[in-house]
């Protein structure tokens, strides 16, 4: 037996390094009839906002070569309904529960965090900073170091729970937001959120995504995720949670060698809902074949 | 209960131009599937990552039937599958057609092209209950008609190019016959968006009970990606988004708001 | 017959909107036995540097989902040998000849341009600004607006020929370099150059690209290219030459609807060397089916 | 002259564990291909975009032969190809083995696994010239030996697991026999990197004439991407990069600098 325990700083430990990625696994209960949710080290929920959101008009998704673009527009049930409807399931869930939070203003992020940090069945927060900041003319929270550090500090002050910032790859230099969030007290960073992408229907001349530009995910972006993780790993000490196109056990190893302490499965849930089973089996095999006693030993061990 | 299964192809035969019938072995769910539900077929090693949804067109003791048309790369691959080929499927998914609450209604099924699939399964169910429905099937031309005769329904065929049956589209055909079908009618439709729109309009005009099975591009088919939205008008809200894969694919005619820019 | 003539500003016209992308077609002569080079509106050469370069150590390429990463390291024969060995072929070539230039300092770029702008068989220049500027601590020319405008202005002063700047997608906001180059007098921008990417061999733990981070190209990046072109098209008036994962005629139409006046074929030459034939045929068909008399009529016509 | 062709599979048979022989119809080039050259096979609709290079293992009146081993997804797909399946190929590519300039040399061919392919073609040529070469073939075990007997060469087989022939690898086998092969020898080798390295070392130690066919990951196979570089020591330069697809795949033993970190 390989030791898959994963410590993400001082505030969170996982029974294995595989989490779900926000927006690709609902709140855990939706596909628990198909996938054994207990196999994951933890669940990261769909982004929650203060009020429920209908999300963007269709079309919201389109297939692209080895990937997809989505523009769901943060459709979600809002924090109140979440507590009402989803808490029961998540309370008895044995893995860790990480709530992904999105907002339009610092105030919104803070309000949600305040509401949720009291709940003892919640183990931590992932902050989706790829949202337009309406108080700052729509610039994304994650792309401006000042906006990002303001938000991170405020959130850090409000919770003693695990706090992770989810970084966008749509920046010139990922090291800047990575360093910023570490400096402001975040426990970890997760990366990458989706990459800007678009597609046009040549027959109707309409964008295949109603919001025109959406987020690219899936295997196509895996090399982009790896590059960003390698860069970030060189400048920060807090754990990196790797995301982007992970489909197989091999990919998990690749992300960890690049510097990820844990990973999230996203789009793969759509094309292979039972990926987690195959991945855990592969990790066992890889580690025993390579005499690795604890999966944590390979973090950042790529000879870059 | 929906199940993810690795299973095998039992039969894969061409039944019309570009149209095939595929039999897939899934013994443990054949008893729980309902007409209107669909399944997901998964593909390995492809640049197209989404599974492909297909309506369940029938069941026998061990197998599920689907009827599919070759329209792109994945359905083309399917057309090469031979007996014994291993595939992964998730079934059953989505909701189903509802029987009419009244007893003496005329059941009318309206199919455009391969939209015939879920309605063939529904026809089987009706027939088992002793009901012989009216079955309108339209296609571009005679070579694309998935079935030519039927012992379980009163079949009405139409072709756009006048090569067989009624000359015109299936909605026009139905409209032209409406007078001679005993009232009240309960109508079930499945076809291309264009046809579904026309049916929804007709349903409201004629104050008919109508259920329509819709199609949307789907990433998961499971209700988790929130990608397959359709605008719905319901009793409680004027307009909101529903998920075709989870809240559908079958919707009441009066619920549907099919806007111009939806695919 | 559809009119495929393409005017890229006042300094360059093409017989059709399809060019080759730098580094994927050599200098035109290398695969002229397989592909009919006359079918292209023009050839964009492999990046030339002042001195010959051996390029990076292997491995230099790796396959990724629907794409590839390369780090050739600007291996090229240098401007002198180029003039000696390649001019004869390019002089008799009837399409347009666009020389792609790379350098480590403003001086290097300027020297090459000076040497080449006198040659009357050369129709224009594409400037590869995804190179580290050694005088500015290795920051890429393309990512800093000041460095970019300095370089563009200097080059503009040196030539009356068609001058196109090739933009990198590895920036927070593509509109900034796009506007910068327009302001500094460039005739056009081409986009996108490759996206940062990396991959690691999980057995050897070594990067699959010697330089660790290389450039991602191929179908995987097509949505990224489309998104960038849509954004740039909204803020600049000079022509955009679209690049990134184009494989088929459908892709060319998609790029043009997004705002590209012409396109370049890159990685596709590796997996379908005769793509140009299929693409030209498709353009004819698409235009006649849609009653388009001149291909230029579709530029930017996506309803975004 | 290399040509890009859409053509068809003539035969595809399994000849050993995971090893197949594929016959492809390309009548207009069979007369111009040389032993050592390779071809590119192209794949449609795959997330792996590179064509796959394979050595030419022989020719007949209309066809080119290759011998391939299933090692990943594309070679797996190939193993399902049936007679008549349409494929795109580009051939011939690369340089070829050079005959020794001297007359009375002993030709020795050293193959590791499917490295046998180009050497079988070379053996055919030598045999036509009245030369019967020494042919050393090594494999992990007897099930993976591509050929078991040969009338056109003096065949020496070895297996790592001692299941057939000499017990050990093919380089050791050759070394053990070197004393009994009439000098001078001219050696031609093709196999995994490990073997090629060992051969290059042996070649220098023994001052043998040696030609080695190398493999590298290739994006284009055409000499345009500059991706398939190998470090070469030549008369004019101490060390520079050559392209395996264009300057190779065959290199002189003394040219090769195979560094540890190359794949
Ligand atoms: C609930 C549901 C039930 C369906 N039942 C059937 C059926 O019984 N028989 C049948 O032949 N087809 C059915 N379809 C449509 C079928 O899923 C598509 O034809 C198939 O996905 C096309 O795959 P492809 O790769 O061959 O084509 P692609 O190359 O992906 O696409 C070809 C064309 O089909 C459209 N298309 C692609 N995916 C979908 C999709 N998920 N939904 C709708 N249109 C799509 C594209 O927009 C394009 O115009 C159903 C779809 C849904 C959503
Ligand atoms: C000049 C040349 C001649 C060759 N001749 C033959 C031959 O006659 N018979 C034969 O069976 N094979 C030959 N090969 C190797 C063959 O090209 C690879 O086995 C094939 O590309 C693997 O494809 P895949 O998708 O099945 O495997 P993949 O999944 O792509 O890879 C499986 C393994 O093969 C390695 N590999 C992948 N591509 C290449 C490549 N281009 N070169 C070397 N290793 C690679 C990978 O690193 C990996 O370890 C030759 C290679 C070259 C460069
Ligand atoms: C349909 C869909 C919805 C998503 N919703 C969210 C979300 O609500 N919040 C968030 O932070 N990320 C969201 N993401 C991004 C994923 O969590 C993940 O960062 C991204 O998809 C890259 O990983 P992948 O390639 O493994 O999917 C969503 C992705 C997809 C495909
Ligand atoms: C092997 C290879 C070499 C390249 N060399 C250059 C180069 O020398 N100069 C340059 O500006 N771009 C170079 N590029 C980038 C391409 O010109 C193009 O911008 C990029 O590959 C995206 O287009 P594609 O997806 O169609 O290939 C190279 C790309 C590849 C794949
Ligand atoms: S397809 Fe994912 S929610 Fe319907
Ligand atoms: S594979 Fe492209 S140059 Fe050799």
Give descriptors for this structure:
heterotetramer, A: 304 residues, alpha/beta, TIM Barrel, 8-stranded parallel sheet, 4-stranded antiparallel sheet, 9 helices, globular, B: 263 residues, Elongation Factor Tu (Ef-tu), domain 3, Rossmann fold, Dihydroorotate dehydrogenase B (pyrk subunit), domain 3, 7-stranded antiparallel sheet, 7-stranded mixed sheet, 4 helices, 16 strands, binds flavin-adenine dinucleotide, binds flavin mononucleotide, binds FE2/S2 (inorganic) cluster
* CATH superfamily heading of chain A: Aldolase class I
Number of helical elements of chain B: 4
Estimate percent helicity of chain A: 25-40%
What is the 3D shape of chain B? globular
CATH C-level class of the largest domain in chain B is: Alpha Beta
Percent strand of chain A: 15-25%
Number of domains of chain B: 3
Please give the radius of gyration of chain B in angstroms.
18 Å
If you consult CATH, what is the topology of chain A?
Answer: TIM Barrel
Secondary-structure arrangement, i.e. CATH architecture of the largest domain in chain B: 3-Layer(aba) Sandwich
For the residues shown, what is the average pLDDT of chain B?
92
The strand order across the widest sheet of chain A is 3-14-13-10-9-8-7-4
Helices and strands of chain A, in order, run as EEEEEEHHEHEHEHEEEHEHEHH
Look up the CATH topology of the largest domain in chain B.
Rossmann fold
Which value, in Å, is the CA radius of gyration of chain A?
18 Å
Structural account:
The complex is a heterotetramer, with 2 copies of chain A (304 residues) and 2 copies of chain B (263 residues). With 304 residues, chain A is an alpha/beta fold. Chain A has one domain: Aldolase class I (TIM Barrel, Alpha-Beta Barrel). Chain A is 30% helix and 19% strand. Chain A has helices spanning 78-85, 87-92, 106-117, 145-158, 175-183, 222-233, 249-258, 268-271, 275-289; strands spanning 6-8, 12-14, 18-20, 42-44, 61-64, 67-70, 96-101, 124-128, 162-167, 188-191, 195-197, 214-217, 240-243, 260-265. In chain A, strands 3-14-13-10-9-8-7-4 form an 8-stranded parallel sheet. In chain A, helix 5 (175-183) links the parallel strand 9 (162-167) and strand 10. In chain A, helix 3 packs parallel to helix 4, helix 4 (145-158) packs parallel to helix 5 and helix 7 packs across helix 9 (275-289). The relative contact order of chain A is 0.17. Chain B is an alpha/beta fold. Chain B folds into 3 domains: 3-93, Elongation Factor Tu (Ef-tu), domain 3 (Beta Barrel); 97-213, Nucleotide-binding domain of ferredoxin-NADP reductase (FNR) module (Rossmann fold, 3-Layer(aba) Sandwich), CATH 3.40.50; 216-263, Dihydroorotate dehydrogenase B (pyrk subunit), domain 3. Helices cover 16% and strands 34% of the residues of chain B. Chain B contains 4 helices and 16 strands. Chain B has helices at residues 73-80, 116-128, 170-177, 193-205, and strands at 3-16, 19-25, 38-42, 52-55, 58-59, 63-69, 86-93, 106-112, 134-139, 154-159, 166-167, 185-190, 209-213, 229-232, 240-243, 250-252. In chain B, strand 1 and strand 2 form a beta hairpin. Chain B is globular, with a radius of gyration of 18 Å. The two termini of chain B are 30 Å apart. The model of chain B has no long low-confidence stretch (mean pLDDT 92). Chains in contact: A-B, A-C, B-D, C-D. Chain B binds chain D through residues 45-47, 73, and chain D through 45-47, 73. The structure holds flavin-adenine dinucleotide (2 copies), flavin mononucleotide (2 copies) and FE2/S2 (inorganic) cluster (2 copies).
